[in-house]
Amino acid sequence: MQATTQAAVQTTASVPLVEASQPGRLVSLDVFRGITVMAMILVNNPGDWGHIYAPLEHAKWNGCTPTDLIFPFFLFIVGVSLVYALSSAKQATQGQSQVVMRIVRRATVLYGLGLFGALFPSFDFSTVRLPGVLARIALVFLVCGILFLKTNWRTQAWLLLGILVTYNVLMQLVPVPGYGPANLNPETNLGAWLDRLMLGENHLWKSSRTWDPEGLLSTLPAVGTGLAGMLTAQWLRRSDLDAATRVAWLCVVGGTAVVLGMIWNGWFPINKALWTSSFVLYTGGLAAASLGMLYWLCDVHGFRGWIKPFLVFGVNAITVFFLSGLVPRLLNMIKLPGADGTPTGLRTWLYDTFFVPYFSPINASLAGAIVCVLIWLGILWVMYEKRIIIKV
């Protein structure tokens, strides 16, 4: 990675250091990304994984908590960002092959970062998890970037519909080899079977080793989430409609998608781990409406006095996500005597010393997470002021 004036997957849609009123720029997109990443840091870094408030946990299986919105919102934002980053290249008659190669390179680096994070610090390739959050971001970035360059919005809309229907058919009608009829259970659904077949149990999510929430087959509807973001961005860029009309229709369509997702939930349940078609509609609708409202506030009416904390997260989103997963492990490599005299990792020691004695277990865990967010806010604020943005 290197310091530059743009962020990795965020691409040139970011507007961290220039006036947000520049043509083709969306302050609201950076704000939306920043809110999403700040929430991601909060839920990924509790003081104690055994004590977490329910809204800060994922749904056990079917259903959707606020935490379950974070990752689809980010993939939706990836789709929006691609449109603003690649529109000029799409219109050009030459040089698209070089753009495709840049997309491939960035996707490869993103996957490499995810793989490094999974390997660190033991670097045991025999049990490393091959799927993952950054791996899914990389794949969605790659597929959606190429689709945007090579297809128009109508084709993208039909692809989105086709993906949702096809995935529903695969998951609910195709028998699972060795298990019998199609089902949506964690270990015996078609996606889990495919992950074990293609990747092997040693390379799946370590909490189960029999299925993975970022598995191969469920990456297909995740691409649908990116396509939803691309369609939203192309709608927002329309110059033949006034801003009020664009925002109003975006909220209407987003609300309709939420309702359709809730209806579809009746036979294909909303489920983040499976990234079901109903989940794509439900979360995509919420994301579209949220971006529309932020666009109305920040870009149309210029209400920006409150946005800086989110901007500083938004312009270095991949950086803070990657480092926030790495730093706690680095800290715990430093050993100090614990309360019982046994060696304790520095992160654990800090939590046990400054949080556990002063709060109830669940509030100590929440306080630890909030302090983690505030520490990263301070670091990113300094980077923002010094115009340091990390690019893959």
UniProtKB/TrEMBL annotation:
The chain crosses the membrane at residues 69-87, 108-127, 133-150, 157-174, 215-235, 247-267, 279-298, 310-331, 362-384. Pfam families: HGSNAT_cat (PF07786). InterPro entries: HGSNAT_cat. Keywords: Membrane, Transmembrane, Transmembrane helix. Residues 25-254 form the Heparan-alpha-glucosaminide N-acetyltransferase catalytic domain. This is DUF5009 domain-containing protein.
